[in-house]
């Protein structure tokens, strides 16, 4: 595999088909600074293009998972001008917000399942981030909050759009209107997180077990599942069934099924080919 890029905001380690992305700014409570917003989509692309990973695990370091958006992102006059024509300022801010949204959407666009392992506070923009993951797990001390409301603004990079698809509308509205903390136990009871663990070590062990189970399956089958689930979330059942039929007609091949049957007959673990790496068409 080519050597992975290095990042200011997190470390990346790939082993046994699992890419572990770990936030690495605990001294700043892993706040999402300008570098973070630029680096996350590049990291997802790097993992797809340059590793054999079949699943991504996102975790963190220090006391909290992440304190959310670093307000310094909006204090750079080069990115967010604070003076000039109001119409042009508004158009520029809209583009900035769209870029921030695209950063988190990269977790959905990557072909690999993304598992979020949360400890401590998951605040503001960090909640936006994990809403874009495929599955969420947390420690008993974890909590989640739509902090933007308390700061006098409306959350704008994904929580209000994704969270209502993950838990009851009434609860989401309460969380959004009040900014209160959602505890780990309540998040589990609502189905927002898959499992709650006593501590971070136990959580990572549990999440890596899930990741290994995913990585053991056919990568083509798994990416097909993610594609279909994301599509069905945003489309009608009828449209989703039609898309499923089209996908199956184009992507299904019996090779992986035959490997599965042969391995089971021989009481062995099947070995599947990886997906072709996602490459920039114009890269060297």
Automatic annotation (TrEMBL):
Principal location listed in the UniProt entry: other
Keywords, alphabetical: Acetylation, Fatty acid metabolism, Isomerase, Lipid metabolism, Peroxisome
A GO biological-process term: fatty acid beta-oxidation
Location in the cell: Peroxisome
Pathway(s) per entry: Lipid metabolism; fatty acid beta-oxidation
An example Gene Ontology CC term for this record: cytoplasm
Gene3D superfamilies, alphabetized: 2-enoyl-CoA Hydratase, Chain A, domain 1, Lyase 2-enoyl-coa Hydratase, Chain A, domain 2
InterPro entries: ClpP/crotonase-like_dom_sf, Ech1-like, Enoyl-CoA_hydra/iso, Enoyl-CoA_hydra_C
Key word Cell membrane present: no
Coiled coil stretches, renumbered: none
MF annotations from Gene Ontology: isomerase activity
Family (UniProt): Belongs to the enoyl-CoA hydratase/isomerase family.
Protein name: Enoyl-CoA hydratase/isomerase family protein
Organism: Marinobacter lipolyticus SM19
């Amino acid at each position: 595999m080519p050597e992975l890029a290095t990042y200011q905001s997190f470390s990346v380690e790939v082993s046994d088909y699992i890419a572990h992305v770990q936030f690495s700014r605990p001294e700043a409570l892993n706040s999402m600074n300008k570098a973070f917003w630029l680096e996350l989509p590049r990291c997802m692309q790097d993992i797809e293009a340059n590793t054999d990973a079949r699943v991504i695990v996102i975790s963190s370091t220090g006391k909290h998972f992440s304190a959310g958006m670093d307000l310094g992102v909006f204090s750079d006059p080069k990115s967010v001008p604070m003076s000039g024509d109001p119409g042009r300022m508004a158009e520029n801010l809209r583009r900035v917000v769209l870029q921030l949204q695209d950063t988190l959407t990269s977790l959905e666009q990557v072909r690999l399942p993304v598992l979020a392992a949360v400890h401590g506070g998951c605040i503001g923009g960090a909640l936006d981030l994990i809403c874009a993951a495929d599955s969420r797990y947390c420690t008993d001390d974890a909590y989640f909050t739509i902090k933007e409301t308390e700061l006098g603004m409306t959350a704008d990079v994904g929580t209000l759009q994704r969270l209502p698809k993950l838990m009851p509308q009434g609860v989401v509205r309460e969380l959004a209107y009040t900014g209160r903390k959602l505890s780990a136990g309540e998040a589990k009871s609502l189905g927002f997180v898959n499992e709650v663990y006593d501590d971070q070590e136990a959580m990572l062990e549990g999440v890596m077990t899930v990741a290994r189970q995913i990585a053991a399956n056919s990568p083509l089958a798994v990416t097909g599942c993610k594609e279909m689930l994301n599509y069905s979330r945003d489309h009608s059942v009828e449209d989703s069934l039609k898309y499923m039929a089209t996908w199956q007609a184009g992507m299904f091949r019996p090779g992986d099924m035959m490997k599965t049957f042969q391995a089971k007959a021989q009481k062995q673990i099947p070995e599947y080919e990886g997906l072709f790496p996602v490459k920039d068409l114009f890269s060297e």
